[in-house]
Amino acid sequence: MSAAATSLLAIRGLRAAYGKIEALKGVDLDIKPGEIVALIGANGAGKSTLMMSIFGRPRARAGHILFDGRDITALPAHEVARLRIAQSPEGRRIFPRMTVAENLQMGADATPGSDAERAASLARVLKLFPRLDERMTQRGGTLSGGEQQMLAIGRALMSRPRLLLLDEPSLGLAPLITKQIFAAIRTLNREDRLTVLIVEQNANHALRLAHRGYVMVNGLITMSGPGLELLQRPEIRAAYLEGGRHG
Amino acid sequence: MDYFFQQLINGLVLGSIYGLIAIGYTMVYGIVGMINFAHGDIFMIGGFIALITFLILVSIGMTMVPVILLLVLLVAMAVTALYGWTVERIAYRPLRQSFRLAPMLSAIGMSFVLSNFAQVSQGARVKPVPPIITGGYTLHDSGNFAVQLSNVQIVVVVTTIVLLAAFTYIVSRTRFGRDMRACEQDQTMAALLGVDVDRTISMTFVIGAALAAVAGMMYLLYYGLVDFFMGFIAGIKAFTAAVLGGIGSLPGAMLGGLAIGLIETFWSAYFSVEYKDVAAFSILIIVLIFMPTGLLGRPEVEKV
After folding, report:
1. pLDDT below 50 — which residues of chain B?
2. Does the distance separating the beta carbons of A76 and B181 come in below 8 Å?
3. I want to staple B21 with a disulfide (CB 3.0 to 4.6 A). Which of A234, B61, B238, B247 is the partner?
4. Residue A49 exposed, middle or buried by CB count within 10 Å (0-12, 13-18, 19+)
């Protein structure tokens, strides 16, 4: 348990299922404070399920999730969010009929904070993604894919998270936008010491960004190690880079 | 022309009452995607609570009409809201993960439960009250026809406008309103952002029931009677109003309510009272043929 004691997030033997289909078959994963951890794997490997199961959706059938040493396995989703775990989920899930400003406000409302703190996070988000500043009064549903992704990350940042979960932030985006978003994540990690778990199919980008990486296959972690080291391994190159999508 | 204006006034008053009930249908549909068939009976309960409160206040010797009305309004809203909360809690929430029709069937059951409860506990006969708000103004008198605006009509319309303003403010400007809209658009995401979805849904039922209670009280003041069955037809009309305006749309519910109230009144005035419901429902059918999402409804397809 010594690893769990120093981890911000520790997942132990996590099993979760949708009905009879077991999506997670005993997953162990650690994220230390200040780390960027990448979780890579093919479509349907269980990456998004793992991310959502931190919020109890689906609820774990076995195993534990510890956040800052506290067992949050059975906590309802909204209480997990209030512990300052923020997620930019698969498909972005922007509120389409709310303005950009309201979407960001929803993020701020997730956790308590003074007006000054909220203003500071808003300024931070708009500095990272100046595009959002021009779109404040526009409805979320009218934004482009890249802008929606920025908004989803911005919304998550508004809760001043201790742990940021990013699900496929590069999916469907132009390379230039992807680059901007990854640069923003790196800045947040360096300047604000933000801890990040990033799920990606774009293994090349994610492993270059991350301190450490995990590889997931069919609901199990099959490999883990420092990002650049994983990137050198031939089996990773074969499975996720060569012949696959390039970043 | 005078006759026309008189009917316009009458139609707007009736429409206000329908609109207040319709908001409850549309809110609940927006957030949980079900038609709350018990909502008309919640309106009926509101009327009875208003009547009972009124009788109690008078029997303990209160005489100041404005104070009585205000107290009746507050008590009716509070008690009826409790009914709304309870109905959601015992009849809908346990079925939320069930198949889509289950809560709807449960709602029909709750509708019977509430109306039978009122019948058994209050009796089946119509309960009349003497006019509480009397007097009014003659706006125009052409000799053979006088356009009247009664004080009770003024009270109904002013109360509706004030409540709608407050309600619109809550939905568009407050944190609770934002949480409500978030749940309506994406419940999972709302939960990921710390919104207690169950609580927000409960509060939606509470607000819908409180507005229905106001409608029930206005009905009592305007028509001077309540009975255990009044929720059925008023509920159907208000539901029609919500669909006509575009179910899920709050301004649509009010617009639909006014439209149904006006159609019904004008049809009764110029054609036949017997066929007023046929007229209202025919307009609904015609509008839905050409605008399937209602007057202010949004199309199902969203750019995401």
Report:
1. 301-304
2. no
3. B238
4. buried
